[in-house]
Design brief:
This protein has 89 residues and is an all-alpha fold. The chain has 4 helices and no strands. The longest helix has 32 residues.
Length: 89
């Protein structure tokens, strides 16, 4: 999949905060899971996976991120009718 530059930039800017949150969650969840003998597995999404989900609109919480990415799209690539929401009326 070809990943748009603005999605790549957003992903790279979000990587450090995502890793920090991952570590905080691990510090809290792993001891709890160990004490209860639960299995815990975590992962960070790959760039291509995030881009695919943004493009497909698969998850509602990603629609907001997609809207931010849409606003970041260069003006010559925008579709004023589609991007304004007028096509949904």
């Amino acid at each position: 999949m070809i990943v748009p530059n603005f999605v790549r930039q957003w992903y790279e800017e979000s990587s450090a905060p995502a890793k920090a949150v991952r570590e905080m969650v691990r510090d809290l969840v792993i001891p709890f899971c160990s004490s209860k003998r639960y299995t815990f597995s975590d992962r960070l999404k790959y760039l291509e996976s995030v881009a695919e989900k943004l493009e497909s609109g698969r998850f509602a919480f990603l629609r907001a991120a997609k809207a931010v990415c849409r606003r970041a799209r260069p003006a010559h690539r925008r579709n004023p009718v589609r991007d304004s929401g007028a096509d949904r009326i």
